[in-house]
Amino acid sequence: MSETTGGVEMDEDVSGVVKKFLYVNRKAPYGTIYALESLEVVLIAAAFDQDVSLVFLDDGVYQLAKGQHTKTIDVKNFSPTYRALEGYDIEKLYVEKESLEARGLTTEDLIVPVTLLPAAEMAELMDGQDVVLSF
Amino acid sequence: MPIVVNGQSYETDEEGYLTNRNDWNEDLAKEMAKVDNCSLSDNHWEVINFLREYYDEYQIAPAVRVLTKAIGKKLGPDKGNSKYLYELFPYGPAKQACKYAGLPKPTGCV
Amino acid sequence: MLHTVNKSPFERNALERCLQYAKKGSAILLIEDGVYGALKGTAVTDKVKKAMKNVSIYALYPDIEARGMQDRAIDGIRLVDYGGFVDLVAEHRNVHSWL
Fold first, then answer.
1. Which residue from A minimizes the CA distance to B59?
2. Is residue A124 less than 8 Å (CB to CB) from chain B?
3. Per-residue model confidence as pLDDT tens digits over C29-57
4. Which residue, A15, A109, B6, B109, could crosslink A105 as a Cys pair with Cβ 3.0–4.6 Å?
5. How many C-beta atoms lie closer than 10 Å to residue B35's C-beta?
6. DSSP line for B56-69
7. Which structural domain, as residue segments, surrounds residue A103?
8. Chains that touch C (3 or more CB pairs under 8 A)
9. Residue A17: which pLDDT band, with cuts at 50, 70 and 90?
10. Residue C7: strand, helix, or coil
11. What is the DSSP letter of A65?
12. Which CATH superfamily is domain B3-100 in?
């Protein structure tokens, strides 16, 4: 097992356990608080050095849309923060192909590089996780 | 609890973080440091400016681990390590430097 | 894997997506307004019945009863109480709560 705690000493039986965490995002960014809450949980949980994946389904794909400008609705535009995930060693971002296509978008329209997966493969990915958190 | 600099009063939260990021200026940073008995050197400013740029780009204050790595990438390994950063900012590089940079406390910091 | 759905299928697409994602041999538990997806004679009944060939579907009886739907559950959907809910969570390796 790889040592990724960045110099932090932990009890052996704690540091050895790396679980697979999947965050499922299914809501558009500003109509509800889910998208922002999910992002904050992901950033905080990144400190625990687990095996993290993010998936975007349904309206969740809108979270990653390029060109968001929120000044006139007076809320924070948190879309640039998805580009910070790489620096947090969160590099597995998946978008469901059907959801993206249904909304007339392509990966070109997204602010971060993602892996496009059809629903059937996404279901496999989900099934193989230890913890699934839905937002 | 407001902080007063050059006769101007600025709103901060109960931990001294600036309420409105657009209020920030260098004198304000110096005053915040003075409260902590810290005088800002070029090395301090390098980190403070880095944090402001990071926030402009990503809209968050980075976690300390991420800050350390990113500083290392930009300014070299001499500066991208916790020893160097903790010597500059003994209250915690992310926490303290973010305050002087006028940013909110990093996400996940308690 | 155990999936839970707590929204009405007539308000949200959670049940529909869950049925699509649930793999053979997995389980779905309908709770709260999700129990409206467990009923006979609705616009989603056929979809649910079709899914029951591959996955086990459960509904939380206290939520069905609270809504006055006690005589309407699709035959073959297993009705559980809170203890049964806990058992289902314990029996499965992981849980996905669709929102």
1. A81
2. no
3. 999 999 999 999 999 999 999 999 999 99
4. A109
5. 10
6. HHHSSPPPHHHHHH
7. 17-134
8. A
9. confident
10. coil
11. B
12. DsrC protein, C-terminal domain (1.10.10.370)
Specify the amino acid at residue A2. S
Question: Which single residue is written with the structure tokens 């929120």?
Answer: A70
Distance CA C2, CA A113 (A): 31
Decide: B18 and B102 in contact? Cβ < 8 Å. Answer: yes
ipTM: 0.88
Closest Cα to residue A88, out of B54, B46, B52?
B54
Give the domain ranges of chain B: 3-100
Mean pLDDT of chain A: 90
pTM across the whole model: 0.88
Domain C2-98, CATH: 3.40.1260.10
Measured in residues, chain B has a length of: 110
Q: Is C54 on the interface with A (CB under 8 A)?
A: no
> Length of chain A in residues, anyone?
135
Indicate if B109 belongs to the active site: yes
Task: Give helix B64-75 / helix B93-100 axis angle, nearest 10°.
Answer: 70
A127 and C98 within 8 Å at the Cβ level: the answer is no
In this structure, the strands spanning B8-10 and B3-5 are antiparallel
The CB-based long-range contact list for C23-27 (8 Å cut-off, 24+ gap) reads: C23/A123, C23/A124, C23/A127, C23/C54, C23/C55, C24/C54, C24/C55, C25/C54, C25/C55, C26/A127, C26/C1, C26/C2, C26/C55, C26/C56, C26/C92, C27/C1, C27/C2, C27/C3, C27/C55, C27/C56, C27/C57, C27/C58, C27/C88, C27/C92
β-sheet bridge partners, residue A116: A95
Token pair in block for residue A69: 């400008």
